[in-house]
Structures are given as structure tokens and as C-alpha cells.
Amino acid sequence: MTETVPELPDRAEVDEAVKLVNDHAQRIFLWNYERSRGQLVTLYNKAMASQWNSVTELDWDTEVDPEELIDWDAPIMRLADEARRVDGSPIASWGEAELTQLGIESLKAQLSQFMHGEQGAMMTAAKIVETVPWIDARYYAATQTMDEARHTEVFARYLHEKLGEAYPMSPFLEGQITALLEDSRWDFAYLGMQIVIESLALAAFGSMLRVTQEPLLRKLLRYVLSDEARHVAFGVISLSEYYADLPEAELKDRQDFLIENTLRSRARSGTPEVWERMGVRFEDVAPALMEAAGRLQLNPFAGFMRGFFAKLVPNVRKLGLLDANDGYLRRHWAEAGLLEFEHADDTASDYEAYDAVAQDRARARS
Ligand SMILES: [Fe+2]
Ligand SMILES: [Fe+2]
To answer: DSSP characters for 213-259?
Structure first.
């Protein structure tokens, strides 16, 4: 009898399936089990009570018509519509069918980045479990790791079952998360994920929820958002304590990190991969899109970035990072016009308002 030996994947297949990241942080074992951080204990208890089941609490039998998910008012749709009428436009021949396909591709691209970002969040939370020197934060990060597994899984399932092939991770997002996973300083995982990327996620999921009628995606986003608001609160609570005693020179590194990672994401480029799937090179269509943006007086990122900074700035203020080093970050962000959000609600206190899971359960009981 001949045994069939499974063929090993070759190098190219491995490279396509995985990415290796080297973490430079030290893992630590803690011997102090005393529950001394009340706010983190409360948050951990809350996280345990608000766990939800992605299999039984979401109705995966819901029929989804991708066309009905398209947000025709989204900047990319308005720009494409107008760009068809620009002289010499490579999409001059586009009709309703192509625009519809663009809308579907754009949604798939967005949900794909959510999915990859969630996996990055799962890895970052797991890193915090191993590197944070406080037991209460370690317990909390373990619940967040589970939350992020569920988020990754539900976005992957929604894409796979309802929309089709996912897009690869954007190099920008991949670079941001990889840097956090490699850093030797444990608080950078928090600052980059819980404060920056998760504020971005709150804004992105929130804006998708506002324009979505489809009941499965709506419930999925509401439940993911209730977890995310807790994650941001976790970052704010932990880092406010840590940064209170950090020397100014060290705080300066954190301020530089924020300048680098927020103003840069402000200038994010378009989504070339969506255009490529539509059979158009982004470089070719970009001039017509720019012209369309001028005609419509539309800045495609403005609305979204407002949502992001409205979450981010008050949280960063709460960490004391706006004013450390004689207001170094405050001056930078003031020049960029971001201080109008300084006194918006910070997420350390408003996470209860996001808890759709608890709200649904209370409604079901009454
Ligand atoms: Fe998440
Ligand atoms: Fe999260």
C-alpha cells in the first residue's frame, strides 16, 4: 500500500499566506494578583457581561442584495459619477452598471480593511496580555483578544458569504499595525491601537452604520461598536495612569508618534485597488477624479476625518499628551485645525452609551 504524502507548500505559497513579524517587547510574568485598579475591574466585569455569540445572535440566513448596500452619496460614488463627464476621462463610457459595480467593490474593500484591522487588533491585544505590568490590565486585554477574534470572524464571514472575494490588507494599515507589534515599549501597542486605530474604527464603523439599512450588517456593526468603545476606554484608563509619571522626554516620543500617525493618515491616498478591479488604472483615472472633486467642491476624506478627530483629540487630551512639553502636540494640532474637538466627549466615560448588546438584552427582558 502506498501512503500519500501531503505536498508541502512552496515558498511562494507560504509568502502569500503568512507574514512574519518580530516583536521586540519582553513578556513578563506577574506575581502580584491584587485587584487594585477599580476602573479596569469595572471594565473587565462589563466585558464579561457583554460578550455576544456571533453564531446565535446574528441571523446569518438574512438574504443580502449587495446592490442595496451601496451608499450612492459616498464621496467615491459622487466623484465617479462626475468624473465620467470630464473631458478625456477613462470612465467616460461608464453607465449605471459600472457605477453599481464600483459601489459593491468599494464596500468590499472597506469591509476587507475592517477584517484585516480586526486581526491586527487581536494580535495587539494579545501582545498587551503578555507585556503589560498590571494584572487588571492583563485580564482586560484577554477579554479584548476574544472580542477581536469575534470581530475578525464576523467581518470575514460577512464578506465570504454575502459579498465575495476580499481585498488584501492595505500597505498603509499593515505598516501601522506591524510597527506596533514590533515595538519594544508596551504602551505603544496601546497608544497605536486603543487610542489611534480604534478611534478610527469607531468613526469608520459608525459612519457605515449610519448609511446601512441591511439588518444583518446593522446588527453586526452595532455589536462590534459596543465592544470597540470599551477598548478605547481601556486605552484611555490605562495610559492616563502610566503617562502621569512618565518623564517629559519620554512623553515627547509619544507626542511625536501621534503627530506621525494621525496627520499622515489624514493625507491618505485613494483606493487604487478598487479601480484596478474595475479594470482602470488609478493613475489614469486620478486626474478626472481630481477635476470632479474641484467641480463638486468635495474633499473625499473631510467627513470621515472629522469623525476620527472628534474621537481622538479628547482622548489624547485626557492622557495629558496635548500639554506635555509646553504644549508641543497642542501647537502641532492647532496648526492642523484639530483643537475644535478638544472638549468633545471622551470615550473613557461614554462607552456605556455604545453598549447595544446590553440595550438589546434589556429590551428582550422587558
Ligand atoms: Fe475590533
Ligand atoms: Fe477593538
So the answer is: --HHHHHHHHHHHHHHHHHHHHHHHHHHHHHHTS-HHHHHHHHHHHH
Whole-angstrom Cα distance, residue 296 to residue 305? 19
pTM: 0.92
Greater confidence, 76 or 303? 76
Residues 95-138 pLDDT 10s: 999 999 999 999 999 999 999 999 999 999 999 999 999 999 99
Q: Tell me the CB-side half-sphere exposure of residue 235, using CA atoms within 13 A.
A: 30
Average pLDDT, the chain: 91
CA of 244 to the centre of ligand 1 (A): 27
User: Could you tell me the sign of the dihedral formed by the alpha carbons of 56, 62, 65, 70, in that order?
Assistant: negative
Question: What distance lies between CA 180 and its chain's CA centroid?
Answer: 14
Model confidence over 266-325: pLDDT tens digits?
A: 445 567 889 999 999 999 999 999 999 999 998 877 777 788 888 899 999 999 999 999
Distance 115 CA to ligand 2 centre (A): 11
Q: From the centroid of its chain, how far is CA 20? A: 21
Q: Which three cell numbers stand for residue 127?
A: 501582545
Question: How far is ligand 1, taken at its centre, from the CA of residue 36, in Å?
Answer: 27
CA of 228 to the centre of ligand 1 (A): 6
**Second-level CATH architecture of 30-57+64-69+92-279+301-365:** Orthogonal Bundle (1.10)
Which amino acid, one-letter code, is at 300? Answer: P
